[in-house]
Design a protein that fits this description.
single chain, 284 residues, 9% strand, elongated
Length: 284
């Protein structure tokens, strides 16, 4: 019934006006979604102190859905447009590429919504946070790996949608072996870093917020990325080390088994000092 109505309307309207009307209708869907999300975002800003799965979804998806849903609507209306054959192919291809791109973005934002829930579920701010730091380390690394895979697969789908790029890809795969050897050597270090990252994420010689002494510097683990680790040093400097460093070289981890930090203090006095008074002062 709806299809018949659209066909009848398209026959009554001029082609250029009908095409503009369909495009504007799709844009209006996006504006309507924005108008729905804006009050929710304002309410979220007021209630920022508490976690909510719904609030996390709104924060992550308010921009994505205002573009992604209009693209889906326009894609469903494409058969009813009155573009000429060449223009139709171009518009259809652009819409297809945008759909793939924003679908990838929507997947990434969905992962971040789940990540927000896990961060709320395993709060790192409590006093004894050893278990939480273990889980946070795994969450951060797995999220970065999955996001990287989504981006790579999306780019592959976009490139393979062009016939000319398919031929280039096939030529590279069946071409001169020297090129493959060079690429293999170039990628060897990156693959080593990636495997080292997996090892650190699951065997956990270091975790997020661990206190380390590394390269003679005292600091906390601030970031664990796919290829490097950032240590926040006590004087606000950042020490950036390749992730393989923590597999290949020794370092001190002061919070390996507990979140407590113990240290040694030497007090140099003579033999007449009242030891009991010193103990009472220490425990006061």
């Amino acid at each position: 019934m709806m299809n018949e109505t659209l066909i009848q309307l398209s026959q009554k309207w001029p082609a250029w006006l009908w095409n503009i009307a369909l495009i504007l209708f799709s844009f209006l869907i996006g504006i309507l979604i924005k108008l729905i999300f804006i009050p929710l975002l304002r309410r979220q800003a007021i209630e920022q102190e508490s976690y909510s799965l719904f609030r996390s979804f709104i924060r992550r998806f308010n921009r994505v859905l205002s573009v992604f849903i209009p693209l889906i609507v326009f894609n469903s209306l494409l058969p009813f447009t009155q573009f000429n054959e060449r223009t139709f192919r171009v518009v259809s291809k652009i819409n297809e590429l945008l759909l793939v791109s924003f679908f990838a973005v929507a997947l990434i934002q969905g992962i971040k919504v789940f990540e927000d829930y896990l961060y709320h579920r395993f709060d790192i701010n409590k006093e004894n946070n050893l278990r939480e730091r273990k889980i946070w380390t795994q969450i951060v690394f797995i999220r970065k790996v999955v996001v990287t895979l989504i981006i790579v697969i999306s780019l592959a789908i976009i490139l393979l949608s062009f016939d000319s790029l398919q031929k280039i890809g096939a030529g590279l795969l069946t071409g001169v072996g020297v090129g493959g050897i060079i690429i293999g050597f170039a990628a060897q270090k990156s693959l080593g870093n990636l495997l080292a990252g997996f090892q650190i994420a699951f065997t956990q010689p270091i975790r997020m917020d661990d206190v380390l002494v590394v390269e003679g510097e005292w600091g906390r683990v601030e970031e664990i990325n796919l290829t490097y680790v950032v240590v926040n040093i006590w004087d606000k400097r950042r020490l950036v080390l390749p992730i393989t460093y923590f597999i290949e070289k020794p370092f001190q981890n002061w919070t390996r088994t507990t979140s407590e930090i113990l240290g040694t203090v030497f007090i140099y006095t003579d033999f007449t000092v009242p030891v009991q008074l010193l103990r009472e002062k220490l425990t006061a």
